[in-house]
Write a structure and sequence with these properties.
mainly alpha, two-stranded antiparallel sheet, 11 helices, about 60% helix
């Protein structure tokens, strides 16, 4: 597997990026090729523009170490909700975009079905995606996150990989007969209740992850917040049914809508982790919260400039 680093994913090699930031304007150097490390002199105007852009979470200085702490700011493209150690010596590629993409595509398809798009109502097609991409591939990405030392990434990606695998097992036609056993031994209402409990459990778990992303970036928080709302509305939709004792269509469609937002947020964070100056004409902004470590650093720098 190819080796890479966080700063390579965000525009510049680690050594060149940190030197570029810390050196004086007359001697700043930019590693403008994230693949081979060949650089050129960065002009004072270019450096000033890069510093300004980094304050909004994009540009070549957006995700590099700008302090002496040796730690990098929160970044959804690395599936890191807080400060984390530099990954210059990491022997694995960044597994976060793979896990995010697997989650995004599977969630996208299921959410469209939950919204009854073009009158498609049966989720059978999702079984294949849930087993292969959203389940197995995302679970593997979670295990690789554990290998690179990312506890949050390992917990989240592995758990949602497990979610999709269990979801596929529940819906596998003629395989495990989970719904049929409920209907035969109890009632269809009992199956809906049990499935509602299943979804509400994932709502609780996702709420825990939402709390951990409150000091990260807007892009990262949005992913988990919209996913949390999707689980909530879907769970309520199965528990608070219609007069005919079937799942509540408006609530399921609302859950599908928030699931769709979560899918696009996951793709957005995946793009942030993939795009750098070696493969893209732009670096996507992730927008650090004002109360995050990066946000506090920005306010401190602004205060010092005003005093000067």
């Amino acid at each position: 597997m190819a080796t890479t680093s966080t700063s390579e994913h965000t525009g510049y090699g680690p050594a060149g990026a940190e030197k570029m930031y810390h050196d004086s304007p007359d001697t700043e150097k930019s590693n403008t090729n994230g693949m081979n490390g060949i650089g050129r002199q960065m002009t004072h105007e270019e450096h000033q523009a890069a510093v300004a852009a980094s304050k909004f979470g994009y540009g070549p200085l957006a995700h590099v170490n700008t302090t002496n702490s040796g730690r990098l700011p929160a970044f959804g493209g690395e599936f890191q909700p807080g400060l984390y150690k530099s990954v210059e010596g990491r022997k694995f590629a960044n597994p976060a975009p793979l896990g995010l993409s697997a989650f995004a595509l599977t969630t996208f398809v299921l959410s469209l079905i939950n919204m009854r798009t073009r009158n498609v109502a049966e989720p059978n097609l999702v079984v294949g995606l849930a087993f292969g991409y959203g389940g197995l591939v995302q679970l593997l990405a979670g295990m690789w996150e554990m290998a690179v030392g990312n506890t949050f990434g390992a917990t989240a990606l592995s758990s949602y990989g497990g979610f999709w695998l269990s979801f596929a097992i529940i819906l596998t036609p003629g395989g495990f007969s989970i719904e049929d056993i409920y209907v035969e031994e109890q009632s269809e209402a009992a199956y809906y209740d049990a499935f509602g409990y299943f979804l509400m459990g994932w709502f609780i778990f996702t709420t825990i992850l939402v709390l951990v992303t409150l000091r990260s970036t807007v892009a990262f928080f949005t992913l988990f917040f919209t996913l949390d709302l999707a689980f909530l509305f879907l769970g309520i939709g199965y528990l608070q049914r219609t007069a005919e004792d079937s799942p509540n269509p408006p609530l399921l469609k609302t859950g599908g809508f928030f699931g769709l937002l979560a899918a696009f947020a996951a793709w957005y964070n995946a793009l942030a982790g993939i795009a750098d100056d070696s493969n893209s004409f732009f670096i996507v902004p992730v927008l650090h919260f004002p109360w995050s470590s990066k946000g506090k650093e920005m306010r401190k720098e602004k205060s010092e400039r005003n005093k000067a």
